[in-house]
Amino acid sequence: MADSKEKLFSDFSPVSTSQWMEKVTADLKGADFEKKLVWKTNEGFKVKPFYRMEDLEGLKTTDSLPGEFPYLRGTKKDNVWLVRQNIQVECPKEANTKALDILNKGVDSLGFSIKGKDVNAELIDTLLNGICADCVELNFSTCQNHVVELAKLLVAYFEKKNYDVTKLQGSINHDYFNKMLTKGKEKENFAQTVKDLVDAIKPLPFYRVIAVNALTLNNAGAYISQELGYALAWGNEYLNMLVEAGVPANLAAKKIKFNFGISSNYFMEIAKFRAARMLWANIVSEYSPICNRDCPNKAEDEECRCAAKMKIHAETSTFNLTMFDAHVNMLRTQTEAMSAALAGVDSLTVTPFDKAYQTPDEFSERIARNQQLLLKEESNFDKVVDPSAGSYYIENLTASIAQQAWNIFLKVENEGGFYAAVKAGSVQADINQSGKARLAAVSSRKEILLGTNQFPNFTEKAGEKRPVEKKCCCSSSNSCEATVPVLNLDRAASEFEALRLQTETSGRQPKAFMLTIGNLAMRQARAQFSCNFLACAGYEVIDNLGFETVEEGVAAAMEAKADIVVLCSSDDEYAEYAIPAFKAVNNRAIFIVAGAPACMDMLKENGIENFIHVRVNVLDTLKEYNAKLGIK
Description:
The chain is α/β, with parallel strands linked by helices. The protein has helices spanning about 1-10, 15-30, 35, 90-105, 120-125, 145-160, 175-185, 190-200, 215-220, 225-245, 250-255, 265-285, 330-345, 360-380, 390-415, 420-425, 425-445, 495-505, 520-535, 550-560, 570-585, 600-605, 620-630; strands spanning about 40, 45, 80-90, 110-115, 135-140, 170-175, 205-210, 255-260, 310-315, 345-350, 510-515, 540, 565-570, 590-595, 610. It has 23 helices and 15 strands. The longest helix has 23 residues, at about 390-415.
């Protein structure tokens, strides 16, 4: 069989890149290659339409192996990741019951979020009762003022239970800078807290207690290179802080955990995680961490290679979650989970599809778990390590993202480090600018959110559903006033959802009537486009098979009590149909022409002012129509 394949390929002569380019140029028929086929990414680099083996020449990304420094292909030689589910602890007994239940349903990593005022030994005893702590990864988060206390309680609990501490895996999600980014608050002596926390957790060698929550940047709409570049500077700030406080570099690096988000940019996310491990390994290596034990992973110069392993937890993004057509969120999170799994993350949380509008229920949490289990048990993603290695495309993406992220890292370091950048607000300004650009892209459909700004469910009603509001976690004794700029964490769909809710709660649902006439193909295409366009605001859309005359169409629209009449025809026929139709409507409804015909200026001179087509801003246009309809 192999011989026959080799013979088959020998029947075809090799094709050079120049020959491919000649063919592409001929097919473009004079069109500009760069403008037509080269993708100018938001990450700051260009992506070619095709890659060949020669594009791998000179790339360092192809030199490493799984489990070997600099860990581009993974920090381990397998691709087993932990399925994590988070639990908000309101009642420790109920949280314990839930934890025990989901541990029997495929979860092997638990995340507990505990209120600071509730942190005590009794809570820990109740919360972890019956949980085999050396069989499951345990992760905790609590108020910054109580993290050291929590660490000491965990150490005491595990010692009391006589656990072999070398078998315990877990983390405490302490991240001072994340609170600055999200709440705008600074805290005195935070460096001492970090040092005290590392000291307190020393008896648990495999517990990581300093977190880099780059997930927050992802949820704020950051581009991939930004999330990674700032994450590296973020981690380096903590690493440098600990080393300066007297913590050995090998120990300091092993106490840092990275929590990344996963966007819907499938291949780039795979490349991001590969680049992240490589860059972080090189950063840690610069601190010359010394290995004090007999370890097969020790470098010849006694450098601790284990310290250079980036511990990655990944969580699907909330930036692209939607309240309307929410089941589409499962499709989004599935591809996001796939990219993270293929990229070799250590643990993964799939965000339940209903999180945008309610506290996830039992059904949505079950689906989120099973999304990961499907990748493991049915698709066998955990059986292959770094399958993207050697891909001409992904290897080049990895190198490009690494370079862009490294540029951001160097810029932050040259300006005084991550803390100084956050305090000055430059990180927030950069991310918020990207988030604003992405919201604008959603508004104009340059970035698609299925079911929200494109192909909405025409008959869906929100009912009692409302977007989950962000709440302040401050106690009554603390001020909510920000002292540094904060990130804008609005989801991409937020403005469209507000618009549609405005329509739904107004007490009336405007009717948009498609006046289809003339060329069959064009009128159908433009009616479909217009129905999707106007339904994004929650309008009732009425499509039609076609009318013989504009008068007949307008009469049908008025009989249907239409608030909006959309003329759907071909560009050539608008010169004939538009003005008579506009006059027949006679201001009894908003009159719209579907398209941007050559005769647009003439139509405008005759009083027609509404045109919808692919170049208009969908959100702004629909807001304008709501205002004209008196919907507030």
